[in-house]
């Protein structure tokens, strides 16, 4: 239905676009003017491909919104007309701005298209060859991401234009809105969560709490002195003992009831057995055998007390990970695990990890070096403020790779499944990869994503002069992060290879324009207003 509306609406745009061509082509030779009119007609009536692109952008936007618990946006023909008009205008007149050359703003275009609003917004981009590329760019920019994930918007229209002789070739516009008279979309239901606590402690908030549909609410459970949590009942059923409980994406009414008991015994910490690993290996600390005889361990706290400085994935996780740091001689890393029960009693235990040098001296001393499945070596070095906390080299032929549709060929170093922890959630980092020999011609950096499958990530990779060092840009929750969550950890399965001969890529067939650089081609975020 969206595609039909897109193609149908182009017939009504022809007159206005031809008028623009007539205006901007005055004063040029008759031959060039005819060519301009021909280009316009070709541009307009190659519509199905453009409509597919526009529909796919809407689908990808709603995937991002769904991941955040937001309702999907609905296609609106008026917003689509305004968006497409602006993309076509930017391409035909070769400019990039929210303000048209005739000084019309996003508001003007939306209103001229017949959309009456009490909230609106606009994103633009240029030079991105595919819907995936443009969504990656927008989602990596806080302002554009805010528009896509704005809970106040109900409707969306997308416009894509390709003009071969323009600066960027590909032009994209998203127009968002909520129509006048619409208070929310969809109308938000309200549910009740009833929270109660027995003698020996409290829960906050307590009583009957009204919660909007799709919202989250967290309850804090506090035992009195000398007591601990004996039972947590959610909707009448027992769940794990905890001192914090969260209802996420609420879609119905619930109850939570807490029972307390005298805290007669402290917990027992167990930091797991000592381990021997090789430099560059992933280490998993294990506190899962810690216990408490009368309630449960509710908090874990890992603290390094000896050895080369190390950063773990999550110091409060039961089983955090880290990658054995670069060393010049065998070393030992010591961690202390402190566990707490719900009553606040604690116990501690230590574990020692002995790291043996891996004898790889090809790369800088501060690079994390390791052996690949192809019997070669690589070096990884995250930039300042980020740390490698997981590294698993995978054999391309192993059963762990289940999706081989579009998988690149000749993964000469295998597939690198790694995680990088950044200091500030949502921030970007650069990972430098050191190669043992120059990267062969024709090779690119490919990524694998659960949602997108295999794809070429080379637009976010730079190469040094002798082709022995790659710098990969990654954004927590955005470009290159497989989990798409701003959670402080970037997940990135990827590797160096060549294109699958069975797959024809359309991303470069229509030209590169502005490439993958969103710094110079993304417009300013347009704010929304409510009246």
What features would you describe in this structure?
This protein has 531 residues and is an alpha+beta fold. It folds into 4 domains: 47-179, Pathogenesis-related Protein p14a; 190-262, Immunoglobulin-like (Sandwich), CATH 2.60.40; 265-359, Immunoglobulin-like, CATH 2.60.40; 360-500, no CATH class. Helix content is 19%, strand content 35%. It is built from 7 helices and 28 strands. Strands 7-5-12-9-10 form a 5-stranded mixed beta sheet, with no helix packed on it. The protein has a 5-stranded antiparallel beta sheet with strand order 19-20-23-27-26, with no helix packed on it. A hairpin with a 3-residue loop joins β24 and β25 (453-456). α1 runs antiparallel to α2 (30-45), α1 (2-25) crosses α3 and α1 (2-25) runs parallel beside α4 (77-93). It is flat and about 75 Å long.
Structure in a nutshell:
With 531 residues, the protein is an alpha+beta fold.
Helix content: 10-25%
Structural classification: alpha+beta
SS elements, strand count: 28
Lateral arrangement of strands in the main beta sheet: 7-5-12-9-10
Q: Please report the number of helical segments.
A: 7
Mean pLDDT over all positions? 85
The main sheet comes to: 5 strands, mixed
Number of domains: 4
Note poorly predicted spans: 1-48, 501-531
Straight-line N-to-C gap: 32 Å
User: Into which percentage range does the β-strand content fall?
Assistant: 25-35%
Rg from alpha-carbon coordinates: 28 Å
Overall shape: it is flat
């Amino acid at each position: 239905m969206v595609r039909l509306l897109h193609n149908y609406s182009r017939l009504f745009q022809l007159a206005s676009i031809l008028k623009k061509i007539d205006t901007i082509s005055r004063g040029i030779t008759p031959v060039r003017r005819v060519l301009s009119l021909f280009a316009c007609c070709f541009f307009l009536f190659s519509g199905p491909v453009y409509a597919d692109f526009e529909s796919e952008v809407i689908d990808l936007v709603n995937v991002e919104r769904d991941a955040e618990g937001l309702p999907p946006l609905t296609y609106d023909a008026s917003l689509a007309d305004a968006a497409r008009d602006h993309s076509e205008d930017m391409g035909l007149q070769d400019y990039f701005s929210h303000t048209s050359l005739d000084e019309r703003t996003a508001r003007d275009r939306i209103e001229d298209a017949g959309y009456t609003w009490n909230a609106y917004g606009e994103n633009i981009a240029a030079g991105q060859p595919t819907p995936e590329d443009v969504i990656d760019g927008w989602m990596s920019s806080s302002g554009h991401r805010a528009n896509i994930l704005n809970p106040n918007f109900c409707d969306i229209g997308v416009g894509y234009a390709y003009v071969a002789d323009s600066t960027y070739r590909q032009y994209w516009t998203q127009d968002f809105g909520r129509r006048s008279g619409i208070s929310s979309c969809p109308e938000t239901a309200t549910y009740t969560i009833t929270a109660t606590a027995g003698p020996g402690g409290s829960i906050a908030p307590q009583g009957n709490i009204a919660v909007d549909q799709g919202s989250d609410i967290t309850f804090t459970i506090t035992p009195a002195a000398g007591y601990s949590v004996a039972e947590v009942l959610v909707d009448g059923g027992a769940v794990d003992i905890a001192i914090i409980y969260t209802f996420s994406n609420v879609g119905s009414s619930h109850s939570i009831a807490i029972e307390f008991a005298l805290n007669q015994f402290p917990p027992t910490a167990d930091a797991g057995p000592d381990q021997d690993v090789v430099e560059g290996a992933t280490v998993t600390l294990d506190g899962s055998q810690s216990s408490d005889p009368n309630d449960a361990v509710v908090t874990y706290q890992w603290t390094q007390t000896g050895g080369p400085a190390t950063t773990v994935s999550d110091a409060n996780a039961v089983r955090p990970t880290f990658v054995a740091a670069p060393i010049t001689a065998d070393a030992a890393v010591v961690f202390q695990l402190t566990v707490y029960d719900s009553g606040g009693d604690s116990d501690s235990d230590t574990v020692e990890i002995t790291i043996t040098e891996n004898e790889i001296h090809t790369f800088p001393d501060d690079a994390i070096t390791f052996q690949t499945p192809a019997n070669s070596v690589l070096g990884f070095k995250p930039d300042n403020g980020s740390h490698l906390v997981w590294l698993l080299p995978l054999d391309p032929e192993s059963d762990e790779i289940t999706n081989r549709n579009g998988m690149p060929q000749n993964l000469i170093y295998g597939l690198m499944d790694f995680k990088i922890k950044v200091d500030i959630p949502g921030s970007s980092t650069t990972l430098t990869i050191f190669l043992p020999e120059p990267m062969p011609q024709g090779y690119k950096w490919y990524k694998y994503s659960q949602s997108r499958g295999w794809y070429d990530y080379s637009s976010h990779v730079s190469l040094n002069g002798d082709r022995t060092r790659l710098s990969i840009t990654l954004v927590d929750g955005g470009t290159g992060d497989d989990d798409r969550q701003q959670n402080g950890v970037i997940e990135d399965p990827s590797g160096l290879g060549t294109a699958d001969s069975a797959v024809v890529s359309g991303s470069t067939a229509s030209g590169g324009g502005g490439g993958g650089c969103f710094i110079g081609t993304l417009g300013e975020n347009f704010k929304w207003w409510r009246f």
